[in-house]
Amino acid sequence: MDFSLVQRVFPFFVEAAWITIEISALSLALGLMVAFLVAAAKMSRSLPLRMFGSAYVSLFRGTPCLIQLFVLYFGGPQIGINLEPFAAGVIGLGLNIGAYMAEAIRGAIMSVDRGQTEAARSIGFSRSQTMRKVVLPQAARLMIRPLGVNAVALVKGSALVSTISVVELTYTAQRYIGSTYKPFEIFGVAAVLYMLIVYVVARIVDLIDRRYAIV
Amino acid sequence: MTAERPMVEVKGARKAYGELQVLKGIDLSVARGQIVAIIGPSGSGKSTLLRSINHLETLNGGEVWLDGVQVNQALRGQAFERHINAVRQQMGMVFQHFNLFPHLTVIENVTMGPIILKGMAKVAARELAVELLSKVGLAEKVDAYPSRLSGGQKQRVAIARALAMQPKVMLFDEATSALDPELVDEVNAVMKQLAAEHMTMLIVTHEMRFAGEVADRVLFMDGGVVVEQGAPSEIFREPKQERTRTFLKKYLAA
C-alpha cells in the first residue's frame, strides 16, 4: 500500500469528484424533468401520449445505459448531433435515469388510495384539482425514497461517462493507472470518494424525507 | 311545481361489469327531505346504485336526476367535466373508509371545498367549518390531523366535510361498516340529527335497526333489482317477498 502515492494524487481526485458531482446533479435535474413529463404521459387519458410514455420507458430501461451514451456521443454526429463529452454525458444519463424515475413517480401516484380521488371528485373537484391538491401532495412523500434510490444509482452510473472521455472520477483513475501501475490504491481512492458522495446524497434524501413526513 | 319535483330520481338504471349485471333496471324516487335506506345482501348492487347517483360509477343505461337536472347527461369531454363537477358540489358523499385527506388538518379537510370551489373567504370558511365540526361534536379537533382521530371521529369529520358544501342530498355508503361497534352510535347520532333537520338522505346500510329508526322508506335490493320497498314497519315486520323474508331472517339470526 503506497500512501505517499495516495497523498500525491488525492487533490486531483477531489477535483475529478467535483466533475462527478456536477454531472450527477445536472443529469438528476434533467432526469426529474423528463420523469415528470413521461409519468404524466403514461398516466394521460390520451392513447398516443400513453404509448409514447411506454415506448420511452421500454427504450431507456430496456437497453444498456452504456449503449445509449455511445449512440448519443459516437452516433450523434452521423445525424448532425455534435455534443461535447460533458453535455453528451449529462443528456445521456438524464434521459436514462428519467425513465427509471418516471416509474418511481408513477408508482407513488398510483399507490395513493383510490378513495382519496373519489372523495375529492365527489366534493366537486376537477381531475386536475384532485391531482394537485389531494393526490400529488400525498404521492410526493411516497416518491422521495424511490427517487433517492435512483439518485444514488445515478451517481454510481455516472462512471459510465468515463467511456466518452468526460474527465470525472473514473476517467481520472484510469489515467493514473497508466502512469503508476498501482490500481489498488488508485481505484481505492476513487471508490472512497464515490462512497462519500453517495453518503451525502443519502443524507439529503433522509432530510427531505423527514421534512415531509405526514404527522 | 318545484315542491313536488323529486330531489333524486333514478330511472331504469342499468350497470354491468363485463358479463356481470350489477343493476338491472332500477327506479327510485326520493322526495325533498325524505330519508331512504337501502338494504340488501353483499353484491346486491346497493353501493353501485348509490355511487352511480354521484357518477362515481357510469351507468350503461338509464338516467339519474338531481333536483331537476340530469346527472348523467350525454355531454362529452370538458363539457361533461364541468357539468359533473357542478352537480357533485350539490351532493355530499360519505364513504365506508372515510377517505379524509391525511395531509390536511381536520379544518382544512372541511374548508377546502368551500374555499376552492365556492370561492368562499378563508375566514368565512373557517367559521362555517367550526360550526359544522361543533355540530358533529369535534370542535376541539379542528387542528388535528386525521391520523390522530378514531374511526368514528374520522367519519364525523367526513360528514362535516360533505356538509360544508351545503349539499341538497347526502349519500351514505355503508358509513358505519368499517367502525368498531362501540363507535357506530356516535356516527348514527349525527345522521339522526341530520334527519331531524330534514336533510334528504340516501343511506346504504347493513344496520337494520338504524334503518328502521331513521328512514322514511326502506328499499330492499337483491341481484341488481329492487325486490321490495315501503315504510320500515312494512319491510321489517311484514315483508311481502320471500327473498326479503329470507334475507331479514338470516340477518337477524346472525
From TrEMBL, chain A:
GO terms for molecular function: L-cystine transmembrane transporter activity. Keywords: Amino-acid transport, Cell membrane, Membrane, Transmembrane, Transmembrane helix, Transport. PROSITE patterns: ABC_TM1. Residues 17-205 form the ABC transmembrane type-1 domain. It is found in: Cell inner membrane; Cell membrane. Belongs to the binding-protein-dependent transport system permease family. HisMQ subfamily. It holds the Pfam family BPD_transp_1. The keyword tRNA processing does not apply. InterPro entries: AA_ABC_transptr_permease_3TM, ArtM/GltK/GlnP/TcyL/YhdX-like, MetI-like, MetI-like_sf. The chain crosses the membrane at residues 16-41, 53-74, 86-105, 147-166, 186-205. It comes from the Bacteria. One of its GO terms (cellular component) is ATP-binding cassette (ABC) transporter complex. It is a multi-pass membrane protein. It comes from Ensifer oleiphilus. The keyword Transmembrane helix applies. This is Amino acid ABC transporter permease.
